[in-house]
Amino acid sequence: LVAARSYSGNNVVPLIVLALRALQHRGQEAWGIAIPGRKPFRRRGLVSEYPVNVAKVVTNYRSDVAIGHVRYSTVGPISLENAQPVDIASAFCIAHNGTISNADEIANFVQDEFGISSSASDTTIAGYRLLQHLRKEKSDWFSAFEKLGRELDGAYCFIFITRSGEIYAARDDKGFRPLCLGYHEESDSYIICSESVALSVLSAKFIRDVMPGEIIRLGKDGIQSCLFSQRERHSHCAFEYTYFAHPSSIIEGISVYNARKELGKVLAEMYDVKGDIVIPVPDSARPAALGFSEKTGIPTEEGLMKDRYGRKGGLRSFIQPLQSERIEVNKWVVPVEHAVKGKNVVIIDDSIVRGTSSSMMVKLLRKVGAKRITLLVTYPPITHPCFMGIDFPTHNELIVNRVAKDAENLDEINWKVARTIGVDYLGYNSVDGLYKGIGLGKNELCTTCATGDYSCLRAKPEYTLRMRKV
Ligand code: SF4
């Protein structure tokens, strides 16, 4: 997500495009931008994939106020129709990061009035519900959003742009997904974006995180903010820190890079393993491998390299929507024979979900002559699906549930998963180790996918997967 408003009349669309490129790691399926009074511009694929689209948008969509989005879907079909921003009855456009876990319930309020299709995304449904509240609240956005916030369950960061050129940005009161505010001096623009990496790329100043439960207005007359809900306990997604977010970002005052390095050190304290070299699974495990290496003194080597020259080499496999695409992306990881041949290797990975990509890496390393292979993982065993913005597979597809369902402790999970993946030893982080590495406690982090504690939601949804709503 990104939104920008220039207070000196500068065209912010080039800034939006650059920011979307910086946020591409958060979504690879589609992208779009919206300015007041025009249908949003939306395309499938990466921002940089077709430069002609970028040229078109920069030339034809000039505005001092704009929003943008890169899509990573967790519910609903993968189609251009569900790309964002979404136009809501020409009143405003909406873009969303997260998952509304009770979207089916909310749909009952809006389906008849607006004739929304049953395949509509949670974002579209939330947008129309907000429109109903706005009509009742005489276009008072703060009151209307307060009402919407009371109804929605799940994770959301929203940005809106109205027909008259106002921007609103809201973050749910648990703070599952990140959102921050910055200032770009050169264009005199305030910018709201999912991660501070976008501000760094624009050479803009990071001001602060948008608070959980806060709605901010970037209006013609300046910035206004209001807390629509407040909670004692927050649920910042632990998976953002280990995998999802860019390492250069700062979330809740914590450097993602430092958190990952610390997680590597936590693994070094938990597991007394021997090895000749440490290698990261590219790219998100690199800082953790450095931390592990620093703590143990085992040198780091680049034993697995992503081939970035191939069209799919630069993509992230986990956030690809289909399993066949995830496997295809993993094929662009190449082992470096001279780094690993005849060596006892310690691989550091950020997480294991289905186990498919880990097995592929291990086979590659065995093929080029790695001797003993140890795999250490910065995220604890993932045992439960996420309904708050990350597309994990169903309960039964998660490797821990498939092969270590009845395990009584972490050691047993470790050796059962090790046997399936084909490594000599495997060590997962623990939930306490996760808190320690990230530096946030139980009252601040969500770890539901590792604990099965869904108390961060009002109700656990019944659907199991994006296409399989019951
Ligand atoms: S369940 Fe896991 S992936 Fe989902 S928000 Fe919580 S920590 Fe993040």
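^ iron/sulfur cluster complex. The CA atoms of residues 22 and 201 lie 7 Å apart. The longest helix spans residues 122-136.
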